[in-house]
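Record 1 of the preview.
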Amino acid sequence: MRLTGTGHASMRIDTGAGSILCDPWVNPAYFASWFPFPDNSQLDWETLGDVDYLYVSHLHRDHFDAAHLKRFISKKATVLLPEYPTSELEDELRDLGFTSFLRTKSEEVVELDGGLKVMIQALTSPTDGPIGDSSLWVEYDGVRLLNQNDARPTDLGVFAELGHVHAHLLQFSGAIWYPMVYELPSAAKTAFGKQKRDRQMDRTIRYIDDLKASWVFPIAGPPCFLDDELWQFNDIHGDEGNIFPDQQVFLDHYNGLGYDNGVILLPGSVSEIGTESVHTTHPVPDVREFFDRKEEHLRAYQERARPVIEAAKASWRHPEIDVLAGMKRRIEPLLDESIYLAKGVGGPVRFDLVGYDGESVESILVDFPGKEVRPYADEKVRYRFRTERALVEHLLHIEEVDWVNSLFLSCRFSAARIGQYNEFVYAFFKCLSEERLQYAEGWYDEHERSTDAEDITIGDWVVQRRCPHLKADLTRFGIVEDNQLTCQLHGWRFDLASGRCLTSVGHSIRAHRADEAPATVPVEAEAEPAG
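->
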């Protein structure tokens, strides 16, 4: 099996029975904030795009690059389609000209022509990507590969049961706006960032230890930030709280823990993978030297990208749009239909929109309890977001249904909040369409009604086996220290004595000391996630 690195989470897999291109991303994403690093725009995409199969893991724009897919990827390719609850991914790919789709069933192996086998595991929580994320398992001639990209399955056992995996490709770096955008003292922001950085590396190591693949390839990050306004987010400033470490930083950390099976893929790197060996060639003479000169490469990349960024910025302003009226039209019908998300948010959310002059501000309130959008009137709010009016104009102009995976991932905003992280705020702004909202409401309804009766023992505590957040198996991801449980899958923490979630609103855990009888009434909880 030949594996060609094509940047970020993208790769081309070549076998004797066909080729698969995964998640090709080249053009900037999220309001021209994210760029692939290293730069992959100079690859021979005409050749790379001439493939038998296309796999797009999910609709995050650093995985689904519509312009690139339309221009460079063969429309003769058969799309390996994850089993998602909505048809959005298929619809968007059809709009780009793809006509051949293999609709997989989650966790079911499909044998393609020539003995090539694939399996896709689809994750379908409202918090998994934009309504879905997935991983691709591939087997040919006894060699097995798992492209986990940035999916976060609760258990890799389904892949391990299919036989020993030889190549495991997975995310290790940050892909979120937290804590950089929060209005916090710099010391606090650094401390929270360091916690986040440590958690994401710990999670990666846990996945690696679970699967025990022969070779590990860190992928799906980091992005780089080439706009002057966002330059500080690149991990080149010696900031221990930066959540975007690069592949070499991770590999050094990984090696420091005693592992020696990590392999870096640059755009253009080629790994020949067998059952007993891997041989990798790179487009540069020395990979470490390349990363040592990271800032130099980023500065040159920035100059190449400057016209693209400026052109993007020029397209965002739509002064003809009445933002208040537009938000009322888009959001109020969804507020009327929302039960679980509106209740979960539990208070008003304020948007401070900075005008073209950089000074004037229009404040708009999304009143979740009152089910209306109106001008702000000096009331206390649960969350406050501050961003440029032009960005919201653009979202309304293009009728964007997912403000999380556009505005928020752009990092072109600042935020403040009262109390703990509230996942329902972000879940709602990810679901600004009838189809998405109804799916999310149904998902939360189903999970609120379900019970988790199985208990496990961790140290001195008996706890429910499944994490209240996204049902991670706490026998694998749970760690108890100082009477607090941490689920390492997403970094959520729980006070075991009270059951209260310390990380986000709306999730309690069932727990009692092993030498005591369980309480008869569960305690209501609150909670902040990994992002």
